[in-house]
Amino acid sequence: MTAKRELQRMIRWTAALFLSMAVLTGGVSAEPRHGLSVFGELKYPADFKHFDYVNPDAPKGGRLVTMGTSGASTFDSFNDYILKGDAAHGLEYLFDSLMVRAQDEPDAVYGLIAETAEVAGDHLSATFKLRPEAKFADGTPVTADDVVFSFTTLKEKGRPEYKLTLRDVVKAEAIDPATVRYTFQGELIRDLPLVVATLPVLSKAYYAKENFEETTLKPPLGSGPYAIKDFRPGTYVAYKRREDYWAKDLPVNRGRFNFDELRYDYYRDRNVELEAIKSGQLDLREEFTSVNWATGYDIPAVRAGRLIKDTLPDARPSGAQGYFLNTRRDKFKDVRVREALDLAFDFEWSNKKLFYGLYKRTASFFENSDMMATGKPSAEELALLESFKDKLPPAVFDEPYVPPVSDASGNNRDNLKKARELLIAAGWTPGNDRFLRNAKGETLDIEFLMFEPMFERITGPYSENLKRIGINATLRMVDPAQYERRMKSFDFDSSVQRYALRLTPGIELRSFWGSEAAKIDGSFNLAGIADPVVDALADKVMAAKSRTELVTATRAIDRVLRAGHYWVPHWYKASHTIAFWNKFSRPAKKPPYDPGIIDTWWYDAAKAEALGARQTPANTQGAAQP
Fold this sequence. Notes:
CATH class of the largest domain: Alpha Beta
Low-confidence stretches: 1-29, 613-626
CATH architecture of the largest domain: Roll
Number of helices: 20
Strand order of the largest sheet: 2-11-10-9
Number of domains: 3
Radius of gyration: 25 Å
CATH superfamily of the largest domain: Dipeptide-binding Protein, Domain 3
Largest sheet: 4 strands, mixed
Distance between the termini: 21 Å
Structural class: alpha+beta
């Protein structure tokens, strides 16, 4: 299952910024390097020809038609860097950055617009030398002034996460037209060189005429591999590969961006999306719904191998998905109430009856990684936690909290009994009706805010369990636009979120769970977590000077977050389940930290010809809104 539209925005933002990676490899002495890495040497030397997970001779051509952001039925903007509007999918392919990530290393980036990067010995500045051939799509050069403008604009006018992320970046200055230097402040600066290296670079001249702070459907000027070709709001957006792309032959781009056209079609409903892939209107679709994956593809095209079902392994942390509870509201401030809500969720029954056993229960905020807490705290973890002992519950110093397990029968009586006892202990007492009430006589009401119908089959049974223990639980379905407005202003009790964490987390933890983010409308801290201990431990993660230190700090913060019961954990699978028509080829080696589809696959003319008339052609005018 996926989370909502905001999840996809967050994933795109996280990927675009590639936060939390910035100690220059090779000691403290400053020298220009072709890449930046954390905790170890770069895999690729300065004279590398291409990434190992691409086919450098992949043919260019054809097109790929896939779904727009799952669950989002429309878009009204080509500006993905501001809080206003619903941005179209794929906009990241319009904009280059100073450096780009290698998807087979946990924490390394290599030069794109910037030929070299030099981090000062004291790490208080980073200097980037730009390639003279770097150009925007209109042929104008990319200069240091554009880089400075991009930083200033994003920090001052961009989404809230930019302000938080760039807080300790004091300034960017153009030393000359091809050299830009960033200056940092404070002690938690490990992440900052890579943060600024992966910011999108915008055209200063273009935005002198266009208002950056407004939504727009005017195709923006970028310097990336694609440009907007055509679009219809609510229906589709198509991108064309730029034949004149300035960086197409750089080592970081060889074998990448092989499709002449990328197109994202939008649907209001996942079931209609499913029918679109089966009928050939879509070329490729990632399936997020377990029942569809288990039963929805039993058609002749799949059995004949024309429509292929495949599972792509994902070596990244699996993310923290669940029903997050808005602790800004008084009814959720007592941790016992929040724990009771977890006890009432019967995952084992859901997995058996609804998910066909395809998932595992999430327990940790760092699930599927060595960063998740297990067992009792190590001596190193205790060294971090002991100084906060008076601010932490005793449970933090024991085994980490693990969600309850049922027998999958649907009779979750023991856990429901424990949940009700916790609620009563928290001051919610039985009334004359079936609902619990507080001292003011108010019932404990919980509204689950949703816009994706697929979550009804999960939230419905969960709500019934909550009613059995005296909670007035309801499900509110709203349209995507209203949903986004309410989430941005934190006008909700509970909703689904998924935090996509990386192999080297750092500064983004401030946006996810930091006290400052809890107060900023539109931030990712939906639960409103405002705990000085979490803030301090997040600083420890950002200050880690080795992977061992980082793992110790993440395990410590994991224990505190899990003891806080800010969510009702969902489930995970360490893979991507996709279906695609057999007209594409791909490299023998998949990048371990990315699906690699847009980046590395290519249109195979021979396979497409063999597929021939047996497949319904994709709709060239855009899929109709259901």
